[in-house]
């Protein structure tokens, strides 16, 4: 009898644990670039202590899961209650409008208003979430390698050619595998494309054909890959839209220059330690400017949640100025909260002397972002453009397509995606 | 009878009791069913559970996949998708020259088809030869034979992702193999960045991972060959090569056919090891059909479930043909055996 009771109790517990729809249960799907998962868990523990009726579960997953599996779950009307995502606009139809649930929507409008459009359908005034951090694409330089090679680090107005030439000299002098790497991502090359005059958005708001700006930078990138200045490992060694970061090559001092973004700061700081000195460089210049691309990850509420009130409570806590400030200080992320940003005085919690100047550089570089780049985070077709770019440019680098064939294919891929979605 | 045996029997009876009881409950209705429907009805009764599982997990998804292949849109539910008839198939097959993927509307699909066909031809041929050689060696009188059989079978037990990762660490630019080459005074090779080497690597890794299974099939065949045939050949002074061609190979042919057909079907489905090892690169030189379907259906920023469904139907047809070939060969073998 006792064992029957035990079995029944265990079964009940299993059923309870397996249900995500219980009142007071909130599941967050979360990925980490650095230490932010631990920081978030710490904050949620405090929230649950203060709100014992709400149980928040942080599901730490790989970024690939967010990119590949979450959209499928959402398309079938399922998913977590809250998720940390980067594909904000394309999936905006799945986010919950928390405006009626929030105690002070004006607080959200005032502090996150600049980025609200990035994560809600066009023309909507919904409050669907907030950016956990603002990011900006940009470069990192290994100062120690440049010093050892006796090469001067290019200045703020240096062009892509200047940077690649300088990095190539360092690579040659120090017998490195390559001069630089850009992450394998259409997003990452879009800032540089805009710096050469690219504009992805047509007059009707739909994708424009590949223009001379994109062609100019991509052609350079292909040439740099062909002559070995850019490591082939990231772009050439994969097919399709597979994302590959080049951070490990930089961390292992295999390249003196790495173009990625501000979200890498904690990762680089943790893994490089005091092995060498490094700093951010902002974005190198093209013919139209020296633009990076803004973006970041947002915490969004999912409209399929069974507990919208509890979700709103969790979101209100996480978006409060104190929590945002502490989260930014501990994760080394730039805050997207206007009030926190304007108040200043962020105390970055690190002993790494490289971090302060790096973050300052990113803040300064954010003023150089061109309008064509500024429009992309809130543009519905940005992901389709990025996907077509990375797929076809890689093929050109691998010698499978000529640049002219690639331009045609990129336009075709994007047109197919638009037609498919309409 | 020893007390140990009596105890075991009592335990056995106790364990079997519920089953016997359940069977006795079914006895009457089953007899009535047999009376009513005859032997065919009984066969249907026993097949029903299996057919239900097959229907739910194979047949229904197959039909759903076919229906999806005739829709477009970004929704997952059929109600949210537009019926487009054969448009997705038309798009897949829109090509000026099937031998040149660049001229095709869906060039990546045709690149994947080309890569898969070449992969299948080479992998199956090498797999058969390598498995045969390994089986012959393991069937001979070698020291620690049991140990070597276990060694060759071990990779079969590994997860394909683990296989892919192990070989990636060995073959990548700064991997173990290049380290060994460098230490030996040789130039490192970009195994996974060169089109030909990367393609060869996917074949080699796939053979390494699966040859243990096929070796086992051939080993079983070798051990079933009567020893007296070899003894007679030895007494006649027949050369070992002639023994192989005249005795071993003909008698091993049924097993070899099984190996070829099974490895053929598996090769068409190549995905996991290759995906982890090369990601389809460099460029698209190791992009195989299953990866194309996966990317287009689920992973790509240019996701298109309808097109992926159409591509998987095409692939399914190829596999169906191969399976029919296998069945036909199996039947022919059986008929020969009867004669």
Automatic annotation (TrEMBL), chain A:
It is found in: Periplasm. Residues 1-23 form the signal peptide. Coiled coil: none annotated. Keywords: Periplasm, Signal, Transport. The keyword Transport applies. It comes from the Bacteria. SUPFAM superfamilies: Periplasmic binding protein-like II. InterPro entries: Bact_solute-bd_prot1 (IPR050490), SBP (IPR006059). One of its GO terms (cellular component) is periplasmic space. The complex is composed of two ATP-binding proteins (UgpC), two transmembrane proteins (UgpA and UgpE) and a solute-binding protein (UgpB). Part of the ABC transporter complex UgpBAEC involved in sn-glycerol-3-phosphate (G3P) import. Binds G3P. Belongs to the bacterial solute-binding protein 1 family. This is sn-glycerol-3-phosphate-binding periplasmic protein UgpB.
UniProtKB/TrEMBL annotation, chain B:
It comes from the Bacteria. InterPro entries: ABC_transporter_permease (IPR051393), MetI-like (IPR000515), MetI-like_sf (IPR035906). It is found in: Cell membrane. Gene3D superfamilies: MetI-like. The chain crosses the membrane at residues 42-68, 117-138, 150-170, 197-222, 243-265, 307-329. One of its GO terms (biological process) is transmembrane transport. The keyword Amino-acid biosynthesis does not apply. It is a multi-pass membrane protein. Keywords: Cell membrane, Membrane, Transmembrane, Transmembrane helix, Transport. PROSITE patterns: ABC_TM1. Residues 113-326 form the ABC transmembrane type-1 domain. Its main location: membrane. Pfam families: BPD_transp_1 (PF00528). GO terms for cellular component: plasma membrane. Belongs to the binding-protein-dependent transport system permease family. This is Alpha-1,4-digalacturonate transport system permease protein. It comes from Roseibium marinum. The lineage of its organism: Bacteria, Pseudomonadati, Pseudomonadota, Alphaproteobacteria, Hyphomicrobiales.
């Amino acid at each position: 009898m006792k064992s029957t009771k035990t079995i029944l109790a265990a079964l009940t517990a299993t059923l309870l644990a397996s249900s995500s729809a219980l009142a007071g249960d909130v599941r967050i799907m979360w990925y980490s670039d650095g230490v932010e998962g631990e920081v978030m868990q710490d904050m949620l523990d405090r929230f649950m202590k203060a709100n014992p009726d709400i149980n928040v579960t942080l599901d730490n997953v790989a970024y690939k899961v967010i990119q590949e599996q979450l959209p499928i779950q959402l398309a079938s009307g399922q998913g977590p209650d809250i998720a940390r995502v980067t594909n904000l606009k394309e999936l905006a139809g799945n986010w919950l409008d928390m405006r009626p649930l929030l105690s002070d929507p004006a607080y959200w409008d005032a502090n996150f208003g600049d980025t609200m459009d990035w994560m809600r359908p066009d023309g909507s005034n919904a409050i669907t979430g907030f950016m956990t951090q603002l990011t900006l694409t940009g470069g990192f330089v290994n100062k120690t390698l440049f010093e050892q090679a006796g090469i001067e680090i290019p200045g703020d107005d240096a062009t892509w050619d200047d940077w690649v030439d300088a990095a190539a000299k360092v690579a040659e002098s120090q017998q490195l595998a390559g001069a630089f790497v850009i992450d394998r991502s259409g997003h990452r090359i879009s800032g540089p494309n805009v710096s050469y005059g690219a504009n992805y958005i047509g007059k009707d708001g739909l994708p424009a054909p590949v223009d001379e700006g994109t062609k100019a930078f991509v052609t350079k990138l292909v040439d740099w890959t062909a002559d070995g200045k850019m490591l082939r490992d990231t772009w050439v060694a994969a097919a399709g839209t597979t994302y590959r970061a080049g951070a490990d090559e930089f961390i292992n001092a295999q390249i003196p220059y790495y173009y990625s973004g501000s979200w890498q700061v904690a990762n680089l700081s943790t893994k490089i330690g005091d092995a060498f000195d490094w700093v951010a460089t902002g974005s190198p210049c093209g013919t139209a400017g020296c633009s990076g691309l803004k973006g970041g990850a947002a915490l969004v509420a999912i409209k399929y949640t069974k507990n919208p009130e509890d979700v709103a409570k969790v979101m209100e806590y996480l978006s409060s100025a104190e929590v945002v400030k502490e989260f930014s200080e501990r994760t080394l992320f730039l805050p997207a909260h206007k009030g926190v940003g304007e108040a200043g005085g962020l105390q970055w919690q690190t002993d790494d002397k490289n971090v302060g100047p790096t973050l300052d550089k990113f803040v300064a570089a954010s003023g150089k972002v061109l309008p064509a780049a500024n429009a992309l985070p809130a543009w519905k077709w940005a992901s389709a453009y990025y996907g077509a770019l990375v797929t076809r440019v890689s093929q050109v680098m691998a010698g499978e397509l000529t640049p002219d064939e690639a331009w045609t294919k990129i336009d075709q891929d994007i047109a197919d995606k638009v037609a498919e979605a309409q | 009878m020893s007390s140990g045996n009596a105890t075991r029997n009592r335990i056995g009876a106790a364990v079997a009791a519920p089953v016997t009881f359940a069977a006795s409950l079914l006895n009457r209705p089953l007899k009535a069913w047999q009376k009513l429907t005859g032997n065919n009805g009984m066969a249907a009764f026993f097949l029903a559970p299996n057919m239900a599982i097959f229907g739910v997990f194979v047949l229904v998804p197959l039909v759903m996949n076919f229906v999806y292949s005739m829709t477009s849109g970004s929704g997952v539910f059929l109600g949210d998708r537009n019926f487009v008839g054969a448009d997705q198939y038309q798009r897949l097959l829109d090509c000026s020259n099937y031998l040149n993927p660049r001229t095709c509307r869906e060039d990546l699909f045709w690149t994947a088809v080309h890569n898969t066909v070449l992969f299948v031809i080479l992998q199956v041929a090498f797999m058969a030869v390598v498995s045969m050689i390994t089986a012959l060696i393991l069937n001979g009188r070698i020291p620690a034979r049991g140990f070597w059989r276990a060694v060759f079978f071990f990779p079969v037990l590994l997860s394909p992702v683990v296989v892919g990762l192990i070989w990636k660490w060995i073959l990548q630019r700064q991997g173990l193999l290049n380290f060994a080459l460098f230490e030996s005074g040789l130039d490192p090779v970009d195994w996974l960045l060169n089109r030909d080497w990367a393609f060869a690597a996917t074949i080699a890794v796939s053979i390494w991972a699966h040859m243990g299974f096929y070796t086992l099939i051939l080993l079983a065949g070798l051990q079933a060959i009567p020893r007296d045939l070899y003894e007679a050949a030895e007494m006649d002074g027949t050369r070992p090569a002639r023994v192989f061609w005249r005795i071993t190979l003909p008698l091993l042919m049924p097993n070899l056919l099984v190996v070829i057909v099974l490895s053929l079907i598996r090769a068409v489905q190549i995905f996991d090891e290759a995906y982890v090892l090369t990601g389809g690169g460099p460029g698209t030189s190791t992009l195989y059909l299953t990866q194309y379907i996966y990317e287009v259906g689920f992973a790509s920023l240019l996701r298109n479930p309808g097109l992926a469904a159409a591509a998987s139907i095409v692939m399914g047809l190829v596999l169906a043909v191969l399976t029919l070939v296998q069945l036909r060969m199996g039947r022919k073998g059986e008929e020969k055996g009867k004669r």
